[in-house]
Amino acid sequence: MGALLNAKIPNGVLHEKWDNYKADAKLVNPNNKRKFKVIVVGTGLAGASAAATLAELGYQVDAFTFHDSPRRAHSIAAQGGINAAKNYQGDGDSINRLFIDTIKGGDFRSREGNVHRLAQVSVDIIDQMVAQGVPFAREYGGMLDNRSFGGAQVSRTFYARGQTGQQLLLGAYQQLSRQIGLGGVRLFNRTELVDVVVVDGRCSGIVVRDLLTGEITSHAAHAVVMATGGYGNVFYLSTNAMNCNVTAAWRAHRRGAMFANPCYTQIHPTCIPQSDESQSKLTLMSESLRNDGRIWVPKKADDARPADQIPENERDYYLERLYPSYGNLAPRDISSRAAKRLVDKGHGVGPLKNGVNLDFSAAIERLGRDVVQERYGNLFQMYERIAGEDPYSTPMRIYPATHYTMGGLWVDYELATTIPGLYAAGEANFSDHGANRLGASALMQGLADGYFVLPYTISNELAPMLNKAIPSTDHPAFVQAESEARDRFNSYLNIKGTRSPDWFHRELGKIIWDYCGMERTQQGLEKALSELPALYSEFKKDLRVTGTDESVNQTLEKAGRVDDFFQLGMLMCRDALDREESCGAHFRSEHQTGEGEALRDDKNFCHVSAYNWTGDPMAAELNKETLDFETAHLATRSYK
Amino acid sequence: MKHLTNLKLKVWRQDGPDATGNFETHIVESVSDEASFLEMLDQLNERLIGENKDAVVFDHDCREGICGTCSLMINGRAHGPQRATTTCQLHMRTFSSGDEIIIEPWRSAAFPIIKDLMVDRSSFDRIVESGGFITAPTGGAPDANLIPVPKPVADAAMDSAACIGCGACVAACPNGAANLFTGAKIAHLNVLPQGQAERYKRAEAMVNSMDDQFGSCTNHGECSAACPKEISLDVIALMNSDFRKSKSKNRKALSRG
């Protein structure tokens, strides 16, 4: 049993904590900021906003991305919107309500102090992004429009058609580009992190691989920020982009950063179902569609009639039936499990009977086709491209898919990991969403961390380091990390087995999805934990990577990422097995109410599980952070 | 689900920026019509690895048509035959059994080939760095509803901002011009009230950066026809108009950022 973790929540009543922190935080004089180098890994919403803001303040910033351009980061694919407690609609929203909704949505497994700060700074994000030129949807009078999202009874979601993530990322990218042009940020594109370097217990920099030449180099800094996204691709099929990976976070973990709540993985209820074996990824259809679409399945199992031939009284609008007060906008975990239960019972629709209907006919009748097209046109078009069916005339078929990972690097209130000098922001950290994230809150958290939290907490950390030397890249720790990285990539090339990295990734994904997906059991998880090490040792013996390490080699890149996914997958299953309760997206079949809802065990599991690397992912050391609820009251979630 | 059979792929292979490239022919014996074009290439790569050969290098990421990473000239057309569709969203149901499919990288001197089908599009980033932003450092923004933005203005900005920066416009242009891309970025920011302070300075800086790196526009309109987001040629007119105004006395000074 490891240590009890301290999140360093500031003193004071909840709504004064962040102000108290800022009032006490140490500052770096504007003229001294240029003496500090900060590395930001990842250029999505969290990374780009952090890099741009830190450079504006005067720090020297080096930004790294494996993409060809910062604008490609997967934040760009977020569709529906971003939450903020602006209360522009005057419908009863407030910072406190956003706080409570987020805590409740996360099934009381997140930290009050962080979540309240998130709700507080949410309002500043909208101001900042409008100033950057983000073309949010407007009313005819010129004021900002809002829509509703799952788990909320107010309209607090700001959106830019179905491309909100794209527009926010472009806003942050533009701000970052300005700094690149001014010389405040040096950008290293097509460059992937391969290790984190720790000297005397402090993060001193990173080791990276140039994806075009295979060259391994070191970069030293006073502080390093990981804004490297989530690990949903451990499932192989997910809504993540093909190149999303856990490597940066995992390499930090292996160097001493604790990894928290790996079993909290979100399954999004509205994705396009898989159509065949060769499929490489799943595509999300925004949750915003649930504002106007009605979800149903045929009441009769194995009903093969087309949707338009099933009369109204033979349809089961199950979310409206089971959760009348939230209806089609029940939270993601609840909606996903409801769909799974009905499909498992044979009510699925489509050629493979693996989906449920998301039907817009009532909305088109009520609002007219033009309004529906204006709200969701690009999503309908995307659906039509992929599924080959027209959602204006036939209901969309949807099914849950892995989408977001709430777990990640453990961070304290300052977003500092357990390695001093190393920070984690956005989806890469675990902090704000508990066991389930609400829709439109990922964009909010990424930008909150990058724009409004890290710039304060990093200056607090750096101020005492003024004029103190930091280890340079010829320090033995850097030299050794570089040589280990070279050996690692050479070793993949030298196995010369028979299976490609993708083959292993697919097999890994099947095990994780079957036993650590939407529903988990002790028996299943134990089976996964016996199969994973066997498959992993097969990977080490039978991998085949063709090509060399001297020019672009996507097969080799993939091999490194799959290696790290294997280790993470073992930790995930172990965590899911240990957490003998159901909470949010983590559903253990042994722990459910008579109605099939998640049954928490607050007595034994009201804590964060954070793991230490021990050299063997099957034998990670568990540490706990107790969650205290002083403002929100621990209660059973009800969306009925 | 149906299968297409006997596709003849001619794929451009090139070891590096300075190497000599050539077309390599591969027969795809069978592929599901539900597969995307890139999934078809994934299967080809699996086979190549199985044969101990190097996989074909191509850029791709989100596979949802939004990140702009994928490219490819397919049978001579940027992003292939389907209108308003990126390569990653193109599905094999668009093709027929027995088809010959020619796959090349983006063709433009401003996008040098890195390897096989992968090109370097960082010239786009240089254009944005030169002025494709609004100077609004973090922290000082006024309330978001303080400046009303008429809905048609927000919609027009959004129409331009939908650009995904994929480079199809440049690849399709007989002159290798980047006017549609640059015009889209300028139009996005220059129509918004928040973008007025730097309007003419922005237009001038971005057009200069564009001219340094890309060919000149002669109004063919191939760019807009190839654009997966159907960006309108109107953005080029707005860019030209703002660039011209930036040259008149005091105009640029009025928008000093």
Keywords:
heterodimer; A: 640 residues; alpha+beta; Flavocytochrome C3, Chain A, domain 1; Methane Monooxygenase Hydroxylase, Chain G, domain 1; 5-stranded parallel beta sheet; 5-stranded antiparallel beta sheet; 19 strands; 14% strand; B: 257 residues; Ubiquitin-like (UB roll); Fumarate Reductase Iron-sulfur Protein, Chain B, domain 2; 2 domains; 5-stranded mixed beta sheet; two-stranded antiparallel sheet; 7 strands
Descriptive report:
The complex is a heterodimer of chains A (640) and B (257). Chain A is of the alpha+beta class and 640 residues long. Among the domains of chain A are: 268-402, Succinate dehydrogenase/fumarate reductase flavoprotein, catalytic domain (Flavocytochrome C3, Chain A, domain 1, Alpha-Beta Complex), CATH 3.90.700; 482-605, Fumarate reductase/succinate dehydrogenase flavoprotein-like, C-terminal domain (Methane Monooxygenase Hydroxylase, Chain G, domain 1), CATH 1.20.58. Helix content of chain A is 36%, strand content 14%. Chain A has 16 helices and 19 strands. A 5-stranded parallel β-sheet of chain A has the order 5-2-1-9-17. A 5-stranded antiparallel β-sheet of chain A has the order 11-15-14-12-13. In chain A, strands 16-10-18-19 form a 4-stranded antiparallel β-sheet. In chain A, strand 6 (191-199) and strand 7 form a beta hairpin. In chain A, helix 2 (45-57) runs parallel beside helix 5 and helix 13 (501-516) runs antiparallel to helix 14. The mean pLDDT of chain A is 96. Helix content of chain B is 35%, strand content 14%. Chain B has 2 domains: 3-115, Beta-grasp domain (Ubiquitin-like (UB roll)); 121-254, Fumarate Reductase Iron-sulfur Protein, Chain B, domain 2 (Orthogonal Bundle), CATH 1.10.1060. Chain B has 257 residues and is of the alpha+beta class. Chain B has a 5-stranded mixed β-sheet. A two-stranded antiparallel sheet of chain B has the order 6-7. In chain B, strand 1 and strand 2 (22-32) form a beta hairpin. The model of chain B has no long low-confidence stretch (mean pLDDT 96). Chains A and B meet through helix 2, helix 4, helix 5, helix 10 and helix 11 of A and helix 1, helix 2 and helix 3 of B.
